[in-house]
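re: the backbone from monday

yeah here it is again, tokenized this time
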């Protein structure tokens, strides 16, 4: 799940962003429902949030629409004046309740490894609270070259441009918009809340069933 307003996005450290020319291939990846199946963990975190705040949250419904910033989901359950407070509480609860239950998506490790084996960089660009995104990747042993959080939809183009990404892989129409805003090729996987046809209609250049098809696609893309 995503996090605080993308307007407060952190800028990647200079030491982690060598000139794009040194890395002719940089591929960006979304996190939730692209690299990780965060539904079990997010459900657990929302259930705990509901218990702590004595406020009903339909966790099953919440995990059916992952992608947008956390605040958008919280607005369905909490009054506007409590969103910041409850968002901070959710992010505090998240490491204990959401990391361990969330597995990698099929083909996630192989997709990242395929980019790196081709001499490129794999950069995770996500709307999630950046420290929690890093906890997920470390827990699952997915070794991205950089992680940038707090960016959603078109705002993801900030990091994609900074890292010189020519491809962005995601599961949501917001990811398609981010790729197109950055001038990157949009590769969509139909593993999240948006179906294949919806992703195509949004402008995805390539739609894959899941990441298991990504290494073969990447090899063809690089040959071309």
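seq for it, each position gets an aa:
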């Amino acid at each position: 799940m995503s996090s605080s307003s993308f307007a407060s996005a952190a800028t990647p450290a200079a030491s982690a962003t060598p000139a794009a020319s040194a890395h002719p291939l940089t591929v960006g990846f979304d996190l939730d429902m692209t690299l990780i199946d965060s539904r079990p963990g997010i459900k657990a975190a929302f259930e705990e949030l509901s218990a702590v705040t004595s406020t009903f949250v339909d966790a099953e419904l919440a995990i059916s629409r992952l992608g947008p910033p956390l605040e958008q989901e919280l607005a369905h359950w909490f009054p506007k004046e409590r969103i910041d407070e409850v968002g901070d509480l959710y992010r505090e609860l998240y490491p204990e309740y959401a990391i361990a239950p969330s597995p990698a998506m099929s083909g996630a490790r192989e997709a990242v490894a395929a980019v790196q084996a081709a001499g490129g960089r794999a950069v995770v660009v996500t709307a999630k609270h950046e420290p929690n995104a890093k906890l997920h990747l470390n827990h699952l042993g997915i070794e991205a070259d950089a992680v940038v959080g707090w960016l959603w939809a078109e705002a993801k183009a900030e990091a994609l441009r900074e890292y010189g990404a020519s491809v962005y892989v995601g599961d949501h129409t917001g990811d398609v918009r981010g790729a197109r805003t950055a001038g990157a090729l949009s590769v969509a996987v139909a593993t999240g809340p948006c179906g294949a046809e919806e992703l195509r209609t949004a402008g995805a250049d390539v739609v894959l069933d899941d990441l298991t098809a990504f290494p073969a696609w990447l090899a063809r893309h690089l040959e071309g």
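The two ends are 35 Å apart (CA to CA). The mean pLDDT is 91.
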